[in-house]
Amino acid sequence: MNEFAKKIASDAKELGIKKGSVLLVHSSFRSLQTPGVTAQDVIDGLMLALGDEGTLVFPALSYLYCGKTHSKTFDYKQTPSNVGYLPEYFRTSVEGVKRSLCPTHSCCALGAERDTIIGGHHLDITPAGPNSPFHRVMELGGSILFLGCGSNCNTSMHAVEELSRPDYLFEDCYTYRMIREDGSEYEQQCYAHDFRGVYQAYSRLEALLTGDALRKGNILGAHCDLIRTVPMWEIADSCYRKDPHYFVGNIE
Known about the structure:
It is a single chain. This protein is α/β, with parallel strands linked by helices. It has one domain. It is 27% helix and 25% strand. It contains seven helices and twelve strands. The strands form three sheets. A seven-stranded mixed beta sheet has the order 4-5-2-1-6-11-10, with helices on both faces. It has a three-stranded mixed beta sheet with strand order 3-7-8, with no helix packed on it. A hairpin with a 2-residue loop joins strand 10 (214-219) and strand 11 (222-228). Helix 1 crosses helix 2 (39-50). The longest helix is centred in the C-terminal third of the chain and has 14 residues, at 229-242. The chain is globular, with a radius of gyration of 17 Å.
């Protein structure tokens, strides 16, 4: 393990990432601003911080390739993610990583809780339902790391939205051809998220989080936010139930 990975692990621990924990990562690789660092260094460093009992999760969202206006076939191996370099590297190049089965909002995981996190996603008919990795990370008391990308891209907020189903959230339900890792196939129905006429404003959550629920710091050259999922869900759900449009704004 090289010095980049060791530095990433040290920075992650300083930020508040603990051994044995579950960590969902949204990322901007370029934000690291460190010549010579590789995607593998980032994965190695985060796994070093999490330890053998920890679990690392990346979104592998594919709604730009498989969704309401795109292909209705999702292939576990071949359908790429559309959320950046690190998630796609994690999905395709790291030994032991497994992907959940969802046409638009799959996740990939590695570590002790991998199978628990990704195993039930195919049972849901919404992108971030009760069996999704986004729920599982919260149920396991995990955290979300925003690595140089800001907290507005918080996909886990979709899971909280789905609890109260605000009027902008869902469009139609579609039937997808799903190809598993072993090549076998099945059909899966899944509703599409809509957001017509509004924009996501999930960063408003930061002002509501207190104490250890939100920590800020740096990993290499990237500014990071670390959010604990349990208080995030409690606060966000309360806000949605009082004002369903609290975390969106109207597009003029």
